[in-house]
Structures are given as structure tokens and as C-alpha cells.
Amino acid sequence: MSEPVLEIRNLDVDYGLGDRAVHAVRDVSLTLHRGEVLGLAGESGSGKSTLAYGLTRLLPPPGVITGGQVIYHPEKDSPYDVLALSDRKLREFRWAETAIVFQGAMNSLNPVHKISTQLTDVLRAHDPAMSEHSRNARAREMLKLVGISPDRMDAYPHQLSGGMRQRVMIGMALILQPQVVIMDEPTTALDVVMQRQILGQLIELRERLGFSVIFITHDLSLLVEFSNRIAIMYGGRIVEEAPASTIYRNALHPYSEGLLGSFPALRGPKRELAGIPGSPPDLAGMPSGCSFHPRCPKAFDPCPTTVPVLGPPADANAAGRTVACWLHPALENR
Question: To 10 degrees, the CA torsion angle through 128, 132, 137, 139?
Fold first, then answer.
């Protein structure tokens, strides 16, 4: 595996303060390697978006980071903790080093401004010395890169299709050539064909430009197809992490198995889809022990009382994978 570009170390995020605080992200550690696509999957409410907004310090009130580090590794300079940056340094870091395509990105464009204005505003904010001609040339170049004709520069958002607006947002995220692009369910509102087109184009851009991607979605089928590694979140924690092909062929955690069983296979024999019974846990009143045990068909004695540690499984091929489950206890659990 290549060198790391972003390390999340024991990150904790709460909503609210004191005894009534909701622990939305709990002790999450992840490493994104240079040039990699890291998929983050889980049901709504599992903490995926909170993790993304926490590591970029974009949490809306009353969200607060209560612990951990986010270490960014620039290509040339020394690593530093994003959570310790001053406001001025943080403004320089956003978009230039790490960009985010927000959930509902198709509707994130300002409806009263032309596409050209919204693309060049990013350049104007980060490079005031850049000439207007150079800014417009760069904006046209980015539109062409994401498959939109440069003659749509003067169009307003309502004059573009949903897929084109999505591509504009991806172009805006890439315009300063960041090292990390975080995509928070960027294709949720699009049909399946358009999803594949945009994600295929994103992977092509990644191979050409060399940036890394954290791709957040509840649709595990997309991650299996487009990610190098996948991390599964449940109840604010990572419960399994492995290469995408490993998760698909041999998921160890029952929650991962449930997610895989909830979408139809594109090839091979037909199989009956099986949903996950019950509902995601209430983060304000998490169950004791493993948070998945009330819904788990394989729960047994230690599950309701003891939280399993995330680590390499002692009873399976542990190359590049971790799991937090008493069915496959990590060495740390023993």
C-alpha cells in the first residue's frame, strides 16, 4: 500500500454537551492512502456524514469534536493535525488540500449565479493574484475535464440537467487540485445509469490527477465496484474494514453480510434479497455490548454485555482487514 495522505486517529464527535450529549462518532480510526478510493458504508444515522464534516471541521452546531486527531500528509511539507489549525490556515487547507462534494450536491449550486461565477469564485478566494483571464481559462478546463462543453460557462444551474450539475460540483471540488476529495453520497438523487457514468468518470479523473477519495454512501454495491477498500460503520463505530473484493467475497461481520444481502447481483443466478431486521440504534441510548446485537441473527453470550475491539481477526486471513465482532474475535479481545 502507498504512503498515507490522511490519518484519522481515535476521532470522537458529539452533538450537544454534558450528560445529554449524543455520541455520533466514537473512537474512529481510518487511514486514507495516496491515490486510493476508500469507501465508507452504512445505514442512515450510522455517523458517516458526521465523520466527514468532523475531519474537515465543518460540523454545524451543536456538533463538537471531543477527541482524536486528523493528520494530513502534504506531498512536500511535514504532516500536521487539521484539528489544530488556526482559522486562517484552515481556510487555506479547505478546497486547496481537501475538498468535499456535499450530500445533495446537485442542489448545492447558487441558482442566481452563472456556472462561471461559481467556479471562478473558488480561484478568486484562494489565489487573488490570478488574472480574470486565467481564472476563466481554468474554469473552462475543469468543465471540459468533467465532460461538460465549455460553452455552458454562462448557463445558470436550472439550465443544466441533474447529472451536469453534479459534474459541475465535482469540477468545483477539483479546480484547486486537492490531494483528498470527500464525496458524501454524491449520486443519491440520480438514476442508476447516471450514477455509473459519473462514478466511472470520477475514477478516470483520479487515475489522471492522482488525488485520493473518501466515498460515503449507504449503497454498498457502488463501493464494491469503485473502491479499493471499504470501511463499514454502525452506531458511530467502524465494525469492519477490508479490501473491497474481500468484503464482497467474505464479509465477517453480520452487519456487513446484511448490507451485501440487501442489493441484487448484476450477474449470476437470482437470489432472494434479505433485509436487516429492526432499526438502527438510537445514538442517545445505545444498547450495551455490541451495538448490533439486538438486530443480529448470530448474537450469543458476550454480545449483549461486552463491546468487541476492532482489530485483525484471529481466526481468519487478517491481511489488510479488521473486524469488531465476537464471532471473529481480534487478538486484542483474547
Answer: 60
In whole angstroms, what is the distance from residue 138 CA to residue 108 CA?
Answer: 21
The residue count of the chain comes to 334
- The total number of structural domains in the chain stands at 2
Q: What sign does the dihedral 216-309-24-256 (CA atoms) show?
A: positive
pTM of the model: 0.91
* DSSP 3-state of 266: coil
**How far apart, in whole angstroms, are the C-alpha atoms of residue 213 and residue 99?**
10
Q: Which domain holds residue 131?
A: 110-177
Alpha helices in 146-191 (DSSP H): 162-174
pLDDT band at 76 (very low <50, low <70, confident <90, very high): confident
Please indicate, yes or no, if residue 103 is contained in any of the structural domains. no
Does residue 187 or residue 328 have the better pLDDT?
Answer: 328
Name the burial class of residue 247, with classes exposed (0-12), middle (13-18) and buried (19+) by CB atoms within 10 angstroms of its CB: buried
Same domain, residue pair 126 and 82: no
Q: Which of 184, 173, 174 is nearest to 42 (CA)?
A: 184
Phi, psi of 51 (to 5 degrees): -60, -45
Amino acid letter, 147? G
Chain centroid to CA 79:
21
Q: In which residue are the cell numbers 462543453 written?
A: 149
